[in-house]
């Protein structure tokens, strides 16, 4: 009962269907948390998980660092040192790989979403305070849970390491972390909090009390995480959104156009295309990220596309109000259905010259004929 309530209330169903690295992140956090909670697992699992967690997503440092420090001071200094060395080597090695390829020391996706790193002085402090406010508001129940666990430590002997770890991790997550994005970003932290709280609270209950408390605890989990319910229920339509917008763009690019292209959502296009894909948002392009931060006019888009020899752009029109003067709108890919994971139901299909526009028109005609049953249709611009 508690397992089903946890899986549903934490949106684990939805995260599985995203098919992203968050699935592995959750697994590693679960291994760490249950081991700390007293579940008997091979000891090396803990240290492998602590080492790998930040390599999957950097925010895993908020859990790995305090746990490794604790284990180093609790008689496992050698294992903790080996895991810490491997963790540091992995992160530095990846940063070095990025740097030698002229991509900076951190991935553009991190810099784009963690704007605090690009600020200084008062701007950084203000950004941290805004992040803290947003996280406390979105995860207020868990903030209360952490506070309760902290104060519970004064009434029960021997729990101080768990309480210190949970308090330090929570402080880092609330200050530097993110939440949202279809219930993905905060999930690892919520799961960590719940398992640690269970490790502290469940031993206080004998079997009969636990059996009576289980339905109540399940209901509490459902109520506490009620804001994640809509995400879970929306998962089928969310997948449909991606299938009939982003996947369709990938089909157009890889099977019909077969030329370099610029996009604002590179997922499916980059995954399926054998040609160069320019990410105009900057998650996969440091050059685009730095250009848009310094030039709000949008002139950088035309310049970077010319340098990369890209003649086509598939973008949300609302994201690029200041479009290059040489862009020709050949048509739109229009999705007819509820918006869940897509920002706009209309993707503008642009070319940078009359000749390129004609090639795009031919590709879109061929695609339209192959996708007659799709809820996404091409609406051609006037003249095409």
Explained architecture:
With 384 residues, the protein is of the alpha/beta class. It has 2 domains: 2-233, no CATH class; 237-380, no CATH class. The chain contains 19 helices and 6 strands. The chain has helices at residues 2-9, 12-18, 22-36, 43-56, 61-72, 77-100, 108-113, 122-138, 140-152, 160-176, 187-201, 207-224, 229-233, 235-244, 246-257, 267-272, 286-294, 299-307, 354-370; strands spanning 261-263, 277-279, 312-315, 328-335, 346-351, 376-380. The chain has a 6-stranded mixed β-sheet, covered by helices on one side. The termini are far apart.
What's this model, at a glance?
By secondary structure, the protein is of the alpha/beta class. It has helices spanning 2-9, 12-18, 22-36, 43-56, 61-72, 77-100, 108-113, 122-138, 140-152, 160-176, 187-201, 207-224, 229-233, 235-244, 246-257, 267-272, 286-294, 299-307, 354-370, and strands spanning 261-263, 277-279, 312-315, 328-335, 346-351, 376-380. α4 (43-56) runs parallel beside α6 (77-100) and α9 (140-152) runs parallel beside α11.
